[in-house]
Queue: 4 jobs
Job 1
Amino acid sequence: MFNWNDIRVFLTVAEEGSSLAAASIIGMNHTTVARRIDALEHALNLELFERTNRGYNLTAQGLVLLDVAKTMRASAASVLTTAEQLARDDDGVIRFAGNAEAMQRFGVKLTSKFKEKNPQISFDLLIDVAWDKNQSPLESGKADLVLRPIDEISGDTLIAKKLARFPLGVYCSKAYHQKYGAPRSLDEAQGRKFVIYSDEVARVMKAVDWLNHQLDAADILYQVNAVTSMAAALQSGAGLGLLPCVTGDATPDLVSCFRHEELQHTLWLVASKESYTRPAVRKFMAFAGEHFKSGNRAGA
C-alpha cells in the first residue's frame, strides 16, 4: 500500500521537474525526496519518472497517474477545509486573508465597516505572503475569504466576486525626481534604472509582466515580491518602480511619473465553495460588493 505523503512528493517533483526543487518546497532533503519516489514506484509497481542529468521527466505511466494524484490532492484539501469549517458556528469567526498591502488598504477598513452593522460576526485577519494559488491559505483551508489583487480567478472550487479595477503607475522618490527628473512616459524612461516585481508576481498580474518585458535587463536593479517592498525601495531613491496608484499617491516622499493603459489590476474577494455555504461569509461578500460599487475604492 502506498503512503499519501509519497503522492504529495510525487506531485511536487512532477510539477518542479527535479528532486532538488521539490525538496526546497516540501522541506525535505533532496535525497529523501528521491527515496520517497523510489518507494512509491516500488509500491505501485510502476516507473513514474525517467531520471536524467537535468532532472525528472514523467513517463507515460507517470502522466496518467499525475491527473489522479491532482484529484487526490484537491480532495484531501477539501476534507481539511470542510472539517475546520464544521468546527465553527455559522455566525462564528471569519478568517479573512490577503497580502499586506491589500489588507492595509482595503481589508481592515472593510471589516470595520461591516462590523458596525454586524457586531455578532468576528474576524481573524491573516497576512498571506504567497502568490502561488496552490500555497495560499484559501486552498489550504486556513482562511474562509481572501483578497486577491490578480487578473483572473480560476478553479471550480472557488466563488469569486470582482470588487474593482485599479490603475497602477510608475513612481520615484522626491530625491530621485530632484536629481534626475521624473520621466512622463515609457519612452522617456528608457535607460533609467527600475526595481521590478518577481516572476511569481508577473505570472498573476499582466500589468507587471507587461512592464517587465518593456525593460532591458541592464536597466533592472533588483526584484521584489511585495508592494510594501517596492514602496520602501522607491522611498530609498533606488530608481523607478510600479505601484498601485492608491498606494503610490498615499506614500510619503514618492512622485508619480506616469501611467499607461496597460497598467491596471483587479481586486477580487474569493471564498471556497465550503466557506460560501456559511451565511456570515455570503453576507460579508455581498456587503463588500456593494461597498465598492458605491465608490469606496480606498476602503474608507
Job 2
Amino acid sequence: MGSRLQWEEVQLNSCASKPVKGTTFGQLPLANESQKPRPAVTFTHLHQPSVPSTNVWALSWLKEHGLNGPTLFTADGQTAGQGQRDKSWSTRHGEDLSMSLALPVQSGWTPPIFNMAVALSFRASLEHLRPPRAAKTKVQIKWPNDILLTQEGSSRKCAGMLVENVWRGASWSATVVGVGVNVNSDRRTSPFHATSLRDAWGISLKPQEVGHLLARELLEQLARPMHPTSILRGFKGHLFGLGELRSFDLDGQTRQGVLSDVDEQGRARYSWTDLGQEEWLQSGDVTWRFEDAVQNRD
C-alpha cells in the first residue's frame, strides 16, 4: 500500500527573532528541472538562528506539541550537530544548511526503504543544483545515507543524513529526517573527506533555499506510492563503491573487500577477499577507509 499524502501549499512560520521570508524557487539554478507535473505539497517551516541540533529541536518539539503535518526545522548554525553512529556534524554558521524535516508516518512505509527513499531524493535534489559545466561530477550515495561528489577520481562528502524514528509502543508514528549540506563553506583544507557545493561546483546558494528545495522534492516523492523494489534498485544504481575492491575497518582490523549488494532491510553484503567469505552487515558494523589519509574514514 502506498502513501496518500495530501499537501497543497507552503506555509511559513518562524521561531526566530525575525520573520522567515518565503522562497522563490525560480532563483535556484535547477539544471535538470523536470517539466512533468508535480504534486502540490505543503509544510510548516520553523527557523532559529542557532540551536544545538535541529534533530534534537525537532524531537523536543514533537514531544511538546505533537505533529499535525510535515514540519521543517532550520537553523543558521548548530553548536552540537549530530551524525551517524554518535559522530558530530560540523557546519559553518550562515554558510551551510542545517535542517530536519518531521513527518507523520504513512501506511506502507518501512524504516529501511524509507531511509533509501530519503537518500535517493536528496541525491536527486543536489544533482538538480549541479551546473552544466560540472556535468561530469557524479552525485552518489555512500551506504547508508551520505552524499558524495565524485570528480577527477576524488570522492568527497557534501551532505550527511540522520533519520530518527518516533515509536508509540510497537507502532512507528513519526520520523525526523535530519540533513546537513555543506553549501558555501570552504572545505578544501578539511582533514576529513569533505567538500561543499561551492568548492566543487563554484556556485553560491542560500542555505535556506536549498533546504526548501530538499524538503519540497522529498515531500513530492513521498506523496507517490512507495515501491520497495524500485527504490532498492534506484538506491543501488547510485551507490558509491558498489562492486569495487576497497579497504574497510571491521572489528578493529583493516579488511580488503567488495560491497556487493544491499537488501530491503538496509543491510549490505561484503565479500572479503582476504578472508574468502561473505557476510551481511549493518551500517554501524563497518567503516570506510579512503585511500589518501588514515584519518579520512567514515
Job 3
Amino acid sequence: MKLPVLKNFESPTGSLIIQELEEPHFDPNWHFHPHFQLFTVLEGTGTRLIGDSIQSFEPGDTVFLGPDVPHLWRSEAPYFEKDSQLRTKGVVLYFQDDFLGKEFLSKPEMHPIQQFLEESRRGISYIGATRELILSELLALPHCDDFARILRVLALLNTLAHSSEGIPITSYGYVNTYKVSETERMQKVHNYVWQHFQKDIRLGEAASLAGMSEAAFCRYFRTRANKTFTDFVSEIRIGHACKLLVDTQWTVSQIAYESGFDTLSNFNRNFKKFTRQTPREYRSAYRTSVQSSL
C-alpha cells in the first residue's frame, strides 16, 4: 500500500470548507489531513481504501472521516485512459474540531457530538435515510450564507451523533502510523499493485521498489497496513472480482483468472475469506437485492 501524503488546507474566509468536485478521476494519492471530512460520491466507481479497510465504491458512497485517517477513492482503470469520456463527481465538507471555538465542544450539551467525532477516527460509512440526508445537506451548503452554514452543519452533526445507520470502517483500535517521509518509495509499490494485480505480482519486485529485502518489506508492510502484503493484493483482486460478478455474465472461472488468481480453488478460498460468501452466493445475493428494490 502506498504511504499517504499529508494534505493541509485552510479556508481564507471561514471555518468550513465545502467543495464540489468534478474531475476525470478522483485524486489517486493515498493521503491524510488534520480535518474532519464528510464526502459523498455523486459519479464514479472504483475501490475505496481507508486505513486498513478496502471496499468498492459507487455513486452514493458516503463516508465521515476523523483527522489523519489515510484514505483514497481509487477510480477504476478506464477513468485514467487518455481518451476516456468518464467523469467523477463528489461533494465534500472539511472542518477542524475547533471550528466553533476551542471550548465549544466541551460543553455538556455537546457531549454526543464530541463522542461522535471521537468515534469517527475509525471512519464511518452511512446507509439508508441518513445517507440521503447527508447528500441533501452537502448539496445545500454551498448556497447558504456563513451563519446558516454553521447552523446546518451543527444540526447535521447532531443527527449523525444519534444515527444508527453508521458503520465503522477500519478495524477497532486502528491508528495511522505512516510518516510523510516514507511516501515516495511506497508510492511505487502501490502503483505496481494497481497496474499488475490482474497478472503475476512478485513479492521480490515490490520489495525492490521499496528498497528493502523481502523479509524486511513484509514486516514493514504488515506493521503499517495492519495486514500482510499478500492479503492486500488479494483484497484488491477480490474487489475487482465482486464488480465483475455483478456487472457481467462471465463464469466464476473467467472472473477468477481475469482478477489475477492462478487457480479457481485459490480464488474461491480467498473470496470466502474476505466476503464470507462464495462467488455464486455473492452474485445471487446482489441480484436478489436488486429485484427487491424494484
Job 4
Amino acid sequence: MKPETKTIDIILRSMRTEYLAPSHVLLRPHHESRTYIRRALHAINQYIGGDQIFQHKGAKEQEARAGSAVLIRAGILYRSMNPDVGKTRRRGISFRFAIMGGQDPLVLLETPFVMDRKIGDFIGELNRELFAAEAQENFLLSATLRAGIGMRLLEKIILLSTLKADALARLEHYNRLQTVFEYIHQNFQEQIPVDKLAELAGLSVSRFFKVFQEASGISPNQYVLNFRLSRAQELLIGDACIHKIASLTGFGDQFYFSRIFKNKLGLSPSLFRARNRREH
C-alpha cells in the first residue's frame, strides 16, 4: 500500500467527530477583523449575499466571492473584511475531528483557504442537514445522522487537500502517544503535570518533550491550552455564563480565562459569542 493511501486509510478508519455544530448568522460590522485573530475550532463557511476578503498573516489577500466557501483552520492567524456588512450571511460548520487518541487530522493536510461556489453549495447543504439532525428527538437517529455528516465533510476536505510530507511519520508518533492524548482529553479540566504525561508514555521528560513536539508540532503545555480554548469556544456558542465556562474548561478564574482567550485568539469571549450567535 502506498504511504499516501495508508495515511488516508488510517485517518478515515480511526476518525471520530468530537465537535460538529452548524451556524447561520447575519454578518454585522463587528464581524470585520481589522486585526488578526485565531480560532480554536476549525470552521468551514459559505458566504451568501456579498463578497469577503480574507488574509492569513504574512500572505496575500484572497477574495471569497458570494457563494464560495472558506476553510478557517484552528490556530492560524487571519483577518476578514466585509464590503457588504448588513446583507451578507454566513452559513457553515464549526468542527473538530480526532484520530488515534485525539489528534487533529487536519495537521496532516495542506488545505485550501478559499474554495469555489460548488464547494460552497456543498457546505450549505451540510449545514441544513446538520440543523435538521440536531432537531431530531430520537437521540440515536440524531447521532447517526451527525456521524454521517462529519464523515462526508472530512472526506471532502481530504479530496481538496494534499498530504504533508511528514504525515506518515506523525501518525507513527500519534500511535506511540495515544494514551497521552486520551488522558489530556479526559482530564483537561485539571492540572496536568508534564511528568505525569511522560510517565504514561514510558519516556523521560526530555525525550517526551521531543516526541510530543514531533507528533503535534507544539509543546505539551500548549496542546493542553489549545484544547481548553477549543472546548471554551464550543461552550460560548451556547448559553452558559462566562464564569461557568472558565470553571468547566480548567481556567478557574473568569478574568484569567478572558485574558488568555483574548491574548491567544485575538478577541474577547463575549465578542466571540456575539459573532457566533446562531440564526436558524
